[in-house]
Write a structure and sequence with these properties.
Oligomer: single chain
Structural class: alpha/beta
Bound molecules: iron/sulfur cluster
Amino acid sequence: MGRQRTSTRVTFSPKVFIPLTHLCRDRCGYCTFAQAPRHLPAPYLSLDEVETIATQGARAGCHEALFTLGEYPEERYREAREWLDEHGYASTVDYLVAACQRVLDTTGLLPHANAGALGREDLARLRAVAPSQGMMIESLNPDLAAHRGAPDKDPQRRLETLEYAGELSIPFTTGILVGFGESRVDRIEALEAIAASHIRHGHVQEVIVQNFVPKAGTVMRDEPACSMEDLVDAIELACTILPADVHVQAPPNLVDDIGALLDAGIDDFGGVSPVTADHVNPERPWPALDALRDAAASRGLELAPRLTVYPEFALDADRWIDSGLHFALLDRSDAEGLGRDDPGAVFPEAYADAANVGTGAEVVQIGRRSTAWYSGADREPTTLIPNPVAVGGAVREVLDGVLAGERVYAEELAVLFAARGREVAAIAEVADELRSRANGSDVTFVRNRNINYTNVCTYKCTFCGFSKGPLSLNLRGRPYLLDDDEIVARVVEAASRGASEVCLQGGIHPDFDGDYYVRVTELVKQAAPTMHVHGFTALEVLEGSRRLGEPLESYLTRIKEAGLASLPGTAAEILHDDVRAILCPDKVTTDEWLMVHETAHGLGLRSNVTIMFGSVEHPEHWISHILATRDLQDRTGGFTEFIPLPFVHMASPVYLKRKARRGPTWREVVLMHAIGRIAYRGSIDNVQASWVKLGIPGVLQLLKGGVNDVGGTLMDENISRAAGAAHGQGLDPEQLQTEVERIGRRLLQRTTLYKQTHDVQEVAG
Ligand code: SF4
């Protein structure tokens, strides 16, 4: 029985326990957590101890710092009261607020406060330092022997806490304890009360259904444990009684048969701690993540790490999360609002001013370094494309349709972009098959040079670390404008080194009129008549035509006659105006970008589709982008390739202003390339991976997931470097050739329009 699953996803929270104090004024009959002062070295952990535990957790890849503590210990123990007085705290909650803040500031872990039955004021204070809070209802039966001597287990007080949390818009975790003396009717009553509170406020993100296990040294040590039948029944009750948007969790460390919990309907395993033992149940260590993954896999389900708040709340932060915590959440989020799943530490990052390097800029990072993979970072991504895997569910259905020749639309794309675990590899496998059918085993690149003629720009794209205002505005970095001689010298040098293309793009200089682009094109063609001029974004040509007051078509025709052969697809970012309003509010709109490319295609100029992903947008925006460009391609056939460009966050203003994510996760990168191959099948035959942003090891992996092209050698690439990318300023084809051959493919040099190909050595300059 249980709830009808709507997806294959089962979540868990990678977390570290911080037992702030083991003192508690309550005496619950089943508890081993609470201890007397004489058994403890100190009444509370010091802030330094808190930070040490949290840092260990962050290093191991946790997202959550779960604060566990007894209720109001200062009301019962003189030692607790004196410790708080000595350290300047009015109450345990007062100290908890300080501890949460320390963890946030030093580790970036998201505190989850579990401080028991609190009043409205305490809940509100904790809301400012913890994105989520929790308190088990346990049971509403007032006569349970287990709660004798536990004033905080008064049902009325706990219901009030649940209600206050709703009124204060606090994403809340609660739950029931099963088999500790309560009846089935009691369970139903508690679940109905939780459901009613959630219906009033929408704040209950999950309900834990926890089975009672007798523990040595407790009053209830001789009581029978909750039976599996009762636990399964309680989970099924929860799935039936609670609204469908309330997640149901059962702790997997308290049962032998994890699969039975999944069969009963849970969709979350709760916290998994790689560092400390579960301080609440120290005698039953958390099972390894592998055991959870295996149990899920045996039922066709996939694990996904989440944050302390579920995506429904993380993605509606203005309503649910204190504004001071928005960035802390964003910094650990993926595009779906789940936890980033690249292994490694995710510490808050701090940067000093950028230092000028040539015509670009380099980021100077200060403080502790994160060790997870990011686009632009000099670190190898994890391997997500292993050998073929078998998966079921909706992803399999979509992939079977793809292999049978069906086209994917929004619904299918949403299924594919939500893929996790083995599903990702299965999608990559199908993309690889489509790549093989379309391109054979050839991997192509173009020998080219970037010429970014100016970094002065009147636009204010919030993601752009490249553009500089005029010096008088005193913005960081040195503005430059290459003179004609310098442009010509670079073209001549590129030609002498065997380049077949120059790629021209730059900032929108206030002094440019539209004729600048015509003149630069002429300069290039005069210096190297056979050079392919690939240049000018949709923004540049639209701006050029506007400044001249000339219709776009006539203007583009003039640049074409001057020698322009194709346009880059940059300036697309995300083709969805809600996202553009954040990333590039004054730049071309979605319709304008599409119109410029349609006009260019109409004149016989080819172009490509780029997508800059991993900053502020979500999968729905990726889907919109892909479908809009595919529709245009259906009309014109003018796009040559699809180029995913992972957002490089390090020196990007929107990240430095704490308003964006840290670029895509590696899983998202793999999916974007593979799904691009699938979505554009029969429409755009080339999928390119950007070595500048991904590094060669990343590109080599993507070559097995739908990618057939590695772009240009790009002597003098500056734009990604200006945003903080650490990969070099040029690609060495000879070196890449060895690597490509190692995976059974052949590296060939191509022209910009994929017309002819040559062996790497044949034309090496
Ligand atoms: S992305 Fe282009 S248009 Fe936007 S600020 Fe940077 S250089 Fe200017």
